[in-house]
């Protein structure tokens, strides 16, 4: 190869590297997905309803904020548990680190990450049977985001720079710079991790319209792979690790609408769900005897909150307690926190039962009896549910 060709190739590769470096630098500075922000002006920027790479932003933010109270879970906890309740925790800092699409395996990684980067006094952990598996969720908990060891921020900076070379991030950076980003709501980081309700109610959001969202959410819940024994074993180990670190744990089963529990029954998953609750009661009791401050509560089932009439029966445009069958509003989240910690406005007496070894058999029997009453008294809802479960699945 002659010298001119070598100079040409050297110049070409130098230009390519310079261009890539410039693109990455601009993407890193504009940061359309808020990968490395906390308490900055960028966090207040309006964004589209779909929060891309939320787990990147939350794992970074929790390391910067170092909250004393952390919520863990999937989209139900992310949307439903309010963070504006510092008085409930004696003024301690609160952050909602739950992310949409998280399996229990994803949630375990996020919980242990929070415990590594902050001294977590209290962890509130929302769970439900269908997502209680170690199968890969859709939360996007990629390798490196929750890794332990020193130099977390240096490693994250390298990951963020690498992410800045992607086409989608470059495209969204350009949309921001050109003023066409289509902002509709705040990032969850602006609300200490809770989803902005404007993201949920926007007409451009896929979940807008309670009635329209009922069918896909019921199908999704009934199709879940959990609960599985490997997931229970991993959860048990994680609870033990958090307990040894001195964290107070409050685990709660999400109060999805009563029809979701009926869906599990009609899909032949009721017995597995009840065995899971029995195992959770035993798990809590064993860790309590070892000195751990852990309690497990069940807010699911058939109670005055979860049995709220659905739009397909009432004709109403919105529900009081639910966005749709799977996701509850933050007024329900306040009831959950009130039952777990006291204070606030107390929930109805039938909402929230602690799972204990001595009381679990009676609780499961009460659930079965309540299920039969619900089936008998809500014939229209049950007919709708059977119709929904017979429909072909919508593409994800």
Proportion of residues in extended strands:
5-15%
Average pLDDT confidence is 91
Can you summarize the main beta sheet?
6 strands, mixed
Determine the number of helices (DSSP H or I, runs of at least 4 residues).
15
Q: Give the terminus-to-terminus CA distance.
A: 52 Å
Secondary-structure content class: alpha/beta
CA-based gyration radius: 23 Å
User: What would you call the shape?
Assistant: globular
Number of strands: 6
* Helix and strand pattern: HHEHEHEHHHHHEHHEHHEHH
The largest beta-sheet arranges its strands as 2-1-3-4-5-6
Uncertain runs = none
Residues in helices, as a percent range: 40-55%
Q: What would the keywords be for this entry?
A:
single chain, 396 residues, alpha/beta, six-stranded mixed sheet, 15 helices, globular
